Amino acid sequence: MASSISSGLSLKLLTPHRLTHHNPSLVSSPSPSIGAAAHFRPQRVAREVPPTTLSSYSNDVVLPSKPAGLEKDPRELWKRYVDWLYQHKELGLYLDVSRVGFTDQFFQEMELRLQKAFKDMVELEKGAIANPDEGRMVGHYWLRNPKLAPKAFLTQQIEKTLDRICEFAEQVISGKISPPQGVKFTHILSIGIGGSALGPQFVAEALAPDNPPLKIRFINNTDPAGIDHQIAQLGSELASTLVIVVSKSGGTPETRNGLLEVQKAFREAGLDFAKQVLVSDGVAITQENSLLDNTARIEGWLARFPMFDWVGGRTSEMSAVGLLAAALQGIDIKEMLDGAALMDEANRTTQDMVVLPYKDSLLLFSRYLQQLVMESLGKEFDLDGNRVNQGISVYGNKGSTDQHAYIQQLRDGIHNFFVTFIEVLRDRPPGHDWELEPGVTCGDYLFGFLHGTRSALYANNRESITVTVQEVTPRSVGALVALYERAVGIYASLVNINAYHQPGVEAGKKAAGEVLALQKRVLAVLNEASCKEPVEPLTLEEIAERCHAPEEIEMIYKIIAHMAANDRAVIAEGSCGSPRSFKIFLGECNVDEMY
Ligand SMILES: O=P(O)(O)OC[C@H]1O[C@H](O)[C@H](O)[C@@H](O)[C@@H]1O
């Protein structure tokens, strides 16, 4: 319990002394607009509890009804606001932690742990094996400051890759690199999942212009209907679509399946997937010599960009994974890198903060952060092998939409979270706003809803942080990504866990592989029985027995139901409500088939 609460408080730990660069002018800014809310729920997740999702979370942690440091006197609260307001002038970014109930004593108590966390960060940036389980360095900070990399060849790799990304994007946008059947590429189809999709999706939503040089679509699952939908939406523009396959490992099944499905769509459209013949070409961003990398080389794909071993999937937005897609959409990636570098610098020299932003265009930030935070911090064991079951749940969409969905529970229901508001001061580009009521714009409403919600939550002892940015720009987005990457790293040091591995994810992947292996055995058993004369229909028990997996009968039932629903020649006769009565056989016997 204590550590859960400190999880929440850790977001404040990053400002261990009062930050003096406050800017009172922010307070009187004439027409600030709102952002949206996203929520962290600090908690220890019990081992038996299934992974927390946006819609389901356990109630095992409830915060005190009124945290000790919550100030209620409006004048004192204003003083607290001004005293603690942090401003990064160059980035135009502000952090307000006044609505969090920490005390001065809390920081004194945390002093030593914080110093250690900052020292850990210094070591990490110097190239320490900060991911001991995988024996890897953690180098995403070098991506925006290549000189920081511990070896000259790493610096060169980063710089060279960035140059190639810029050059490649320029050639595609200008039409120097073009699809065989057209003058220019018009679309990108990005195939990837997890860290190989969430960053590029977030950045596209946040920063792509209304009419980008290339419009981007994503395939980030192995749902055939979803893939079909993306391809159907492209229609004839498949011929001018640049496919980007993104996978660090080069072996993620969802991504491989997406690639195979897209290749098939190209074949069926009479287009050649590989660059040497007609249409769109693939670009592999992967580890050198991975399966995917080799395929790309052998098939002569347009280009290959490296994804470095020392960059994790969920911190890869500033690598080729994020930058290539962004550059192709006309987003200023150098500005993104600059914003991130400035934020890194601020975090090194002046201790910092942690939060969540938005505005409609920042809608996907919480989804992006969900992976960054939950995959990094949701760990069973600490670095010394103690079971700690750490984690912070992240969820949220955008304000004021969320006001009409779940703010009711946040204010009045279970108290196991804190909110981070992201405020974007600029409502619209200059000259475009208008008053929909005398003296009031649409953006003023959004502003009002943000601050109204913040006040209403605070009145009921619900804490919040507010991050304010002037505008959603490549620079501010880069800074926000960097802010959270750093926050996650520091938090992990504070609670002594490895933020850079994901052992829990492997369990689900392994189990999925076992289901597919069982399906093959089921098919082999059914095939053998169905090839008999006469056909030998089998009960579920008999199939399970013949598969030497009697304990898997429920899974076998599900496999058969799924195959039957998909016209896979599986016939199950019997009463719908009583699976035990089923007699199952294959409509087709394939004597040659080897499952
Ligand atoms: O980039 P890939 O190797 O295809 O990996 C995609 C995703 O796979 C796994 O599920 C990991 O837990 C994620 O961290 C990763 O982002």
UniProtKB/TrEMBL annotation:
GO terms for biological process: gluconeogenesis; glycolytic process. It holds the Pfam family PGI. InterPro entries: G6P_Isomerase, Phosphoglucose_isomerase_CS, SIS_dom_sf, SIS_PGI_1, SIS_PGI_2. PROSITE patterns: P_GLUCOSE_ISOMERASE_2, P_GLUCOSE_ISOMERASE_3. Pathway: Carbohydrate degradation; glycolysis; D-glyceraldehyde 3-phosphate and glycerone phosphate from D-glucose: step 2/4. GO terms for molecular function: glucose-6-phosphate isomerase activity. SUPFAM superfamilies: SIS domain (SSF53697). It catalyses: alpha-D-glucose 6-phosphate = beta-D-fructose 6-phosphate. Keywords: Gluconeogenesis, Glycolysis, Isomerase. Its EC number is 5.3.1.9. Belongs to the GPI family. This is Glucose-6-phosphate isomerase. It comes from Castilleja foliolosa.
